[in-house]
């Protein structure tokens, strides 16, 4: 068998594939999603360009296209104009044809003009990344084959399938269809898993739609956001600066009057307040009414 420059046991190639795909999904969630689409975090040029370069190698996606389509998703969520809502297009359409939906919307110049402002438009973007997106993907293929031999082709195939399956399919589809909800926002967003590490923290989708401009997706103590963990690591090395995170309610003992600060706090923490009100008031009342109705409807013998 012909090997590449690096020879590994079988499980070593699995680890390599997992690490490379995780770098890709982290580039999507930190650079494209939290930094570019929502301006929730500022990235140092070194970090920003590494993520952009890596996405050129592994996806060929243009920053402006991705940011514009995602911004439109939030602006038109669950409507016919939402580029990838399973509520309007069907869950199987989004799961299986998510990439096609993305490519179709990326050809909509009106979407790019209206929602794509503020994305990179430098020399690298105009001369390399946009006109030569296929070159990046082929460069990744050649590098994998040189390093890992024929198995590098398999690793490359896994890399190429990762974003279409997990981002375009599962995040855009399943995360608006199944899972649990921390907050009753107007859309159908769901949290797929509380331990969000496999697709970079994007599993916490209901939290994200509640606090769209937050750099941190986890809100409960038992939730874990891998993307936020990497942002904190980058922040330690002065390579990232989060701008906003989910607000935390602060209780002031003894305060009995309502003033402007109270109203501001209610507006800021409205989702947590409504959730606590539903949990502590509405649900117990419904449960009590159900018990009372059950006793009233029992037919005596």
Q: What features would you describe in this structure?
A:
The protein is mainly alpha-helical and 301 residues long. It has 2 domains: 10-242, no CATH class; 248-301. The chain has helices spanning 10-37, 45-58, 63-75, 86-89, 91-106, 109-115, 123-129, 133-148, 151-171, 205-210, 226-236, 260-268, 270-296, and strands spanning 41-43, 195-196, 224-225, 240-242. The protein has a two-stranded antiparallel sheet. A two-stranded parallel ribbon has the order 2-3. The chain is globular and about 75 Å long. The mean pLDDT is 90.
What secondary-structure arrangement, pairings included, does this model have?
Elements: H1 10-37, E1 41-43, H2 45-58, H3 63-75, H4 86-89, H5 91-106, H6 109-115, H7 123-129, H8 133-148, H9 151-171, E2 195-196, H10 205-210, E3 224-225, H11 226-236, E4 240-242, H12 260-268, H13 270-296
Parallel strand pairs: 2-3
Antiparallel strand pairs: 1-4
Helix pairs in contact: 1-2, 1-3, 1-9, 2-8, 3-6, 5-9, 8-9
Give keywords.
4 strands; two-stranded antiparallel sheet; 13 helices; globular; mainly alpha; 2 domains; 301 residues; two-stranded parallel sheet; single chain
């Amino acid at each position: 068998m012909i090997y590449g420059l690096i020879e590994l046991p079988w499980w070593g190639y699995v680890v390599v594939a997992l690490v490379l795909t995780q770098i890709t999904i982290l580039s999507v969630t930190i650079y494209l999603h939290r930094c570019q689409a929502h301006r929730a975090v500022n990235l140092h040029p070194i970090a920003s360009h590494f993520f952009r370069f890596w996405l050129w190698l592994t996806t060929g996606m243009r920053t402006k296209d991705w940011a514009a389509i995602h911004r439109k998703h939030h602006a038109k969520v669950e409507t016919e104009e939402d580029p990838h809502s399973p509520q309007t297009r069907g869950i199987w359409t989004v799961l299986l044809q998510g990439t096609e939906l993305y490519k179709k919307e990326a050809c909509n110049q009106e979407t790019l003009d209206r929602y794509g402002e503020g994305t990179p438009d430098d020399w690298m973007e105009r001369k390399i990344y946009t006109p030569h997106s296929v070159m990046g993907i082929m460069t990744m293929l050649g590098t994998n084959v040189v390093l890992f031999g024929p198995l590098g082709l398999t690793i490359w195939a896994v890399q190429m399938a990762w974003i279409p399956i997990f981002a375009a399919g599962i995040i855009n589809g399943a995360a608006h269809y199944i899972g649990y909800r921390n907050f009753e926002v107007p859309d159908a967003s769901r949290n797929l898993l509380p331990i969000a590490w496999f697709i970079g923290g994007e599993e916490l989708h209901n939290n994200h739609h509640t606090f769209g401009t937050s750099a941190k997706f986890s809100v409960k103590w038992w939730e874990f956001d891998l993307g936020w963990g990497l942002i904190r690591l980058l922040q330690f090395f002065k390579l990232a600066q989060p701008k906003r995170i989910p607000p935390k309610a602060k209780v002031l003992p003894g305060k009995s009057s309502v003033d402007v600060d109270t109203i501001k706090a209610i507006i800021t923490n409205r989702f947590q307040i409504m959730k606590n009100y539903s949990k502590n008031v509405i649900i117990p009342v419904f449960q009590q009414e159900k018990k009372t109705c059950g006793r009233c409807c029992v037919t005596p013998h």
